[in-house]
Write a structure and sequence with these properties.
By secondary structure, the protein is mostly helical. The chain has one domain (5-80). Helix content is 83%, strand content 0%. Helix 1 packs antiparallel against helix 2 (47-98). The model has no long low-confidence stretch (mean pLDDT 81).
């Protein structure tokens, strides 16, 4: 029963990938919101209505972006916590073997 350093690196890489994907999605949403805002600005409507619509779109976009990033950070934290738990279990296992304790008592 061993957990290699590669397992921890793999989990960390997965966490970073989740965060990067969330950032890419956020950038795409922001780009689309700006495009929509520009379309609205090019329409022949009173400026006040355009500004209200623009602010509404940007606010909704910011909320979506925050939600995506928050979810990605939560997933990354879960992966890191999982890696940490595996590390602690492995460390205890090795320490007990070195200390001469019965290794079978620590397997599940």
């Amino acid at each position: 029963m061993s957990v290699s350093n590669l397992d921890f690196i793999d989990l960390d890489m997965k966490a970073e990938k989740i965060i990067n994907e969330a950032k890419k999605k956020a950038e795409l949403i922001i780009r689309e919101a700006r495009k929509k805002a520009n379309e609205i600005l090019s329409m022949p409507y009173p400026i006040e209505e355009i500004e209200k619509e623009k602010e509404s779109i940007l606010k909704d976009t910011e909320e979506k972006v925050s939600s995506i990033i928050r979810e990605a950070e939560e997933k990354a934290k879960l992966l890191r916590d999982k890696a940490s738990a595996k590390y602690e279990k492995t460390l205890n296992y090795v320490v007990n073997i070195v200390a001469g304790l019965n290794e079978w008592a620590f397997t599940e």
